[in-house]
Amino acid sequence: MAAAPPRPGGFVLFLHGSGGSGDESRAQVAPYFAAPGLAASVRLSFPTAPTAPIACYGDAVITAWFGIAEVPITAKTVRDEKEVLKAVDYVHELLDKEIASGTSPSDIFVCGLSQGGALAIASVLLYPKTLGGCVVFSGSVPLSKSFADKVSPEARKTPVLWFHGMADGLVLFEAGHAGCAFLEELGVTCEFKAYPTLGHSMIDEELQYFQQWILNRLGISGATEPSRPSSSSQHKDLQ
């Protein structure tokens, strides 16, 4: 089969947190790329995780990319890595499909909030190609350091932008800080932005920076103020 012709523009895959949905993430993030000049240049995808009973919530059935061992998430929280890797395989299938359609890996960004951010960084670290970037909002690295040997030289070239609130009570600031430190040990470029009073939510200041960071890497100018219902996007993520 002949290769697809090159597909211009960027692709942003955004993964929601546990208990959330793709539609909720779309409502928060899409307005930042809705200007006429951007909508045609940046494609957005907001998949929804499957539902599963989560033990630490009394087996309540919620959307989740993988199991949740405990809350709050700390720098020492251990996940079921088989579940994490199953979710990573799903993300890799999405990335492979996008690349097969003609999008350059350098124009692809994997992003996420909370558990979605954890899945985003795990997926990027284990992907065999250098991507445009990874953006983590209030997330953590869900893999042990033993996985360092599985991170290819190509994956280590993917830049990472990490946002975390110092008042986050669900994914503690220490988890985010330790995650970025681990990335730097791998030789990954990680820009870490801390917000002293921010809890477990996304705010306009983060999303504006996120927008510009992606557009800069795509070589797109003309970022504009988004049309949004309020100045911040509060998130009720369970993890």
TrEMBL record:
Phospholipase/carboxylesterase/thioesterase domain sequence ranges: 11-214
Record-level Gene Ontology MF annotations: carboxylic ester hydrolase activity; palmitoyl-(protein) hydrolase activity
GO CC terms, sorted: cytoplasm
Transmembrane segments: none
Cross-referenced SUPFAM superfamilies: alpha/beta-Hydrolases
A Pfam family: Abhydrolase_2
Family affiliation: Belongs to the AB hydrolase superfamily. AB hydrolase 2 family.
Name of this chain's protein: Phospholipase/carboxylesterase/thioesterase domain-containing protein
